[in-house]
Design brief:
Layout (H helix, E strand, L loop, with lengths): L2 E8 L6 E7 L5 H7 L4 E7 L3 H13 L7 E7 L8 H13 L7 E6 L1 H13 L5 E6 L2 H7 L4 E6 L2 E8 L4 E5 L8 H18 L1 H15 L3 H21 L14 H11 L6 H20 L4 H12 L12 H8 L12 E6 L2 E5 L4 H10 L3
Parallel strand pairs: 2-9, 3-4, 3-5, 5-6, 6-9
Antiparallel strand pairs: 1-2, 7-8, 10-11
The structure holds nicotinamide-adenine-dinucleotide and glycine.
Length: 368
Amino acid sequence: MTVLMHTLHVELEDRSYPIYIGRSLLADPGLLGRHVSGRQVAIISNETVAPLYVDRVRAALGGVEPAIEKISEIVLPDGEQHKTLDTLGHIYDRLLAEGHNRSTTIVAVGGGVVGDVAGFAAATYQRGVNFIQVPTTLLSQVDSSVGGKTAVNHSLGKNMIGAFYQPGAVLIDIDTLHSLPPRELSAGLAEVIKYGLIGDEPFYRWLHDHISQLRALEEGPLAEAIERSCSNKARVVAEDEREAGLRALLNFGHTFGHAIETAQGYGEWLHGEAVGAGMAMATRLSVEHCGLPEDEIALLLELLAAAGLPTAGPADMGADRYLELMQRDKKVIDGRLRLILLDRIGAARVVDDVPGDTLRRLLEVAPV
Ligand code: NAD
Ligand code: GLY
């Protein structure tokens, strides 16, 4: 039975949209039907998620009135390495061959990889078609499905080709998390913790008390954590959709994290794991550079460990390697590194004046 636990709104004037959070939402013809605009639907998923959840979406679409005339199912291979222009080409081929017109609705069912590729397909197919996100990983439920960043990777860089394109609705069915590998759940928790650190101290303190319930997928706390995360993200996106300022704060810990992911080779460390270690580093630096109280370091390390996340970067990664890779960060302007740091828990800002020797010292001690 469908249980709608929270409904939020991303406020973007005529492109505003709801985020529904609850149980068994996938199977609800009413919710999907409200957001399917024409009589054609293309479900885009991957080979892992499709066998688990696409039948439920299909069945729900079967109950939509007036009846949907065409449902195509496009199943992509699983993995970040398939987030490419080739995969996008395959999606366009199928949509065209199966006669999808401008009134079609694309429904993405999967994690961030599926959502990002399907979103870019929706942004570009026939100059843009209706798009619904059905995220099935915790990371995609609290981060990638909200805010309209869509992209594919290029051999020279991750997410280098894409568009801002907001979905018409996000359906977060927390039941889907029961099939998610625990390591992926922990990776999603890193982004949940991030929202507390950068903008919501009460939520951050709440997480310390509820982290084991979240890992055990207790539905009340889980829906609450997703709702708080999405409402924090929705607020930031409503204020700064195209990342002119405030939205950059969502990258807390990510400059260090991206350096770890690149150094280790994508896939070795999950994104959320690298962000976990990166947030620990950014918090240490915040103590040194911004006067964040020192006891916050131990509290964060405790929370990261309880979430099943690393608390430090790889032991064999030296300061030189971090500094080299961090210079490639999108936030570097005129060779100046811009980092997100905390003045206090819940108050983040962009900082571009960290002395080189302070940063180097931090990177040298971080793995200990
Ligand atoms: P993912 O999409 O690769 O999913 C992780 C794994 O879990 C995959 O193997 C997937 O098939 C599997 N999976 C998904 N749902 C499942 C379920 N319910 N049960 C069992 N297995 C399931 O990874 P992700 O962490 O969801 O997303 C990472 C991607 O998101 C990256 O490409 C990143 O660039 C992107 N991203 C985008 C934004 C944005 O704002 N658009 C933000 C953050 C990350
Ligand atoms: N994940 C960062 C953003 O959406 O801006």
